[in-house]
Amino acid sequence: MQPQPTRRPRTTRAKSGHASSKRRLAIPSGVIGGAIARYHPDTKEWDGSELADRHLGCLAAYADVTFVDKRTLEASRQAKQKSKAFASVVRSIERAADYVTIAQKLGHEAGTTEI
After folding, report:
1. Which helix (H) or strand (E) holds 72?
2. Over the stretch 40-97, which tens digit does the pLDDT of each residue have?
3. CA 4 – CA 79 distance, rounded (Å)
4. How far is CA 38 from CA 32, 90, 114, in A?
5. Angle at CA of residue 89, ends 84 and 90, nearest 5°
6. Ramachandran angles phi, psi of 67, nearest 5°
7. Which residues, in sequence order, are bridge partners of residue 67?
8. Reported pTM
């Protein structure tokens, strides 16, 4: 009788080779991205910046303040009220009309110092 060859244990991975979606949602950017996608207002048309703002929103766990458009801001407000996981990882998501306002909110005088 011949000895049985040893087999390597199988690992569970998604078909794409990435970790499972459940594990992805456990990281802060996954929690934020999922919540913003879930609570984002459903519109017929997308502004070109909306996708970028969704991705920028994921940085809200790592940055002191993140500036996004009004729809993404509204989605983050709703997510903060309805999702404990979102509220626990997000720092500050805000909206500003222009770069001067961003500079002022960050405590810089617009046009007089480098940001």
Report:
1. helix 70-82
2. 877 777 666 777 888 888 889 998 899 998 888 999 999 999 999 999 999 899 999 8
3. 54
4. 10, 16, 37
5. 100
6. -100, 130
7. 94
8. 0.66
